[in-house]
Write a structure and sequence with these properties.
mainly beta; Jelly Rolls; 4-stranded antiparallel β-sheet; 1 helix; 43% strand; globular
Length: 220
């Protein structure tokens, strides 16, 4: 689920899986996706809230045993929302982005929800993701801009275990950046403040860390 200036709740239910559905009725929601057979139309996941659909590419499939979910292979499977900046979808100030996810194979960098450019010292946008065995929430704002953008990454205190389901959420209220895992606060930072700092060109992908010079797909 995603909301404009108030918050994003991108419920990619269990990374893109749905165990217990979330019934989103908040008028501020920008997007909410449930990754199951009921919402799959051809190669497109239809949103339960908002108008933005998710395109499924490569080796991605709906898992019907156990928790119904979409499985990404970490190689070709992808989930793309938009390819260019969309003011109607991306939040400008405060936000929440949340997902249910199961990681089957963790690399150095991975993305759960990604709207970022982190190329050398050019750092803009935001990312809910993972770094090796820890969940992360990265954010760049105009208040902390050093001229070409600056991202602060908040890392979870506890290590994730492969093959287990987690609820991961990143929040920003204009002054504090927080990361929660299974409802527990894992990290907080006050470096970032003010309006979110976006690049002119941004990929908006689920299940990937994606910018101009990197594409790290999620296996899970």
């Amino acid at each position: 689920m995603i909301s404009p200036a108030s918050r994003i709740l991108a419920s990619i239910l269990v990374l893109f899986a749905v165990g217990v559905p979330i019934h989103a009725t908040d008028a501020d929601l920008l997007a909410h996706w449930v990754f199951d057979r009921d919402h799959l139309s051809g190669s497109v996941i239809e949103p339960t809230s908002g108008r933005h659909r998710v395109e499924v590419t490569g080796e991605a499939r709906i898992e019907t045993e156990g928790v119904e979910s979409i499985i990404l292979d970490g190689e070709t499977g992808g989930l793309s929302v938009v390819r260019d900046r969309d003011e109607a979808l991306l939040p400008s100030m405060a936000m929440t982005v949340a997902a249910w996810i199961r990681v089957d194979r963790a690399g150095d960098w991975g993305g759960i929800v990604s709207a970022i450019q982190d190329n050398g010292d050019f750092e803009k946008g935001w990312l809910l993701g993972l770094n090796a065995s820890r969940f992360t929430f990265g954010l760049s704002t105009r208040g902390a801009d050093d001229g070409n953008g600056k991202i602060t990454y908040v890392h979870a205190a506890t290590r994730l275990r492969r093959g287990r389901w987690y609820h991961v959420a990143g929040t920003y209220d204009g002054a504090l950046q927080r990361l929660y895992v299974n409802g527990r606060l894992q990290g907080v930072d006050s470096v970032q403040h003010g309006e979110i700092n976006y690049p002119q060109r941004v990929f908006f992908d689920l299940g990937a860390y994606h910018d101009d010079d990197e594409l790290h797909r999620l296996a899970g």
